[in-house]
Amino acid sequence: MSESITENHRDLEKIIKEAQTLRGNAECVIENKLNEVQSRGQHLLENSLHSVQQVGSNALASGRVWAGVTTDYVRNNPWRSVSIAAGVAALLTLLLKNK
User: Which residues contact 74 (CB under 8 A, 6 or more apart)?
Assistant: First the structure.
């Protein structure tokens, strides 16, 4: 009977050591996956930031082009520009007056 208890105790210690080893392995795997996900997240964030900066730069350049075109049109057609501005103002006045 005492041999059986001793054998069971050894088996239990062996199981505990194996469980601790498995736990350590699982922690390593989890840590590696966490680092991988963190790295991918950082990479995606950097790419997104670069894309947003690129879009902002493109929008600014496009706005400058349109501002230049508008300025040229107003300089070449001053009376037509004044007429258009007066018409838009009158239309807005009518629309806002009814509300």
Answer: 81
